[in-house]
Specification:
It is a single chain. The protein is of the alpha+beta class. Among the domains are: 1-35; 38-86, SH3 type barrels. The chain is built from one helix and five strands. Strands 4-3-2-1-5 form a five-stranded antiparallel sheet, with no helix packed on it. The termini are far apart.
């Protein structure tokens, strides 16, 4: 047999193996995520909407979620992206916490006090730079 043909067949077999392996891994992750989606769980949808699941109808793939108290939305079950996980980080007593200085904000537009506004010149006496002409005298 031709050695190039053997190398191509082995490369193809390795490629197919990794494709099946990754698809099984994704299927397991999806099944685990779907098993965690039950009534009472806070979720995030594909379009960034957060809410709590009130009920799920398996036959029609419709879920009722409550986004704010009294606001119930009817969505397709496949638009549920994932359950929301608490992203709280615990700080140990030994860890040093850096304190950032508190800056005072203007009450009008929440710009840090003392900072120039957009387009404002820092030094009002400073003149605008003069553009030099590229034309020669007499042209």
């Amino acid at each position: 047999m031709d050695p190039i043909l053997i190398v191509v067949a082995v490369a193809l077999a390795v490629f197919v193996f990794f494709q099946f392996r990754s698809s099984r891994k994704r299927a397991k992750e999806t099944a685990a995520r779907q098993a965690a989606i039950l009534p009472g769980v806070e979720i995030m949808t594909n379009y960034g909407l957060y809410g709590t699941i009130l009920s799920i109808d398996e036959d029609t793939n419709v879920a009722l979620i409550e986004t704010t108290p009294g606001t119930v939305l009817k969505i397709h079950r496949q638009t549920i992206l994932k359950p929301v996980e608490d992203e709280t980080t615990e700080v140990s007593d030994d860890a040093e916490v850096e304190e950032t200085p508190i800056t005072e904000l203007n009450q009008d537009n929440a710009i840090v006090a003392g900072e120039p506004e957009f387009g404002e010149r820092i030094d009002p006496d400073e003149k605008k730079p003069v553009r030099k002409s590229t034309k020669k005298v007499g042209e």
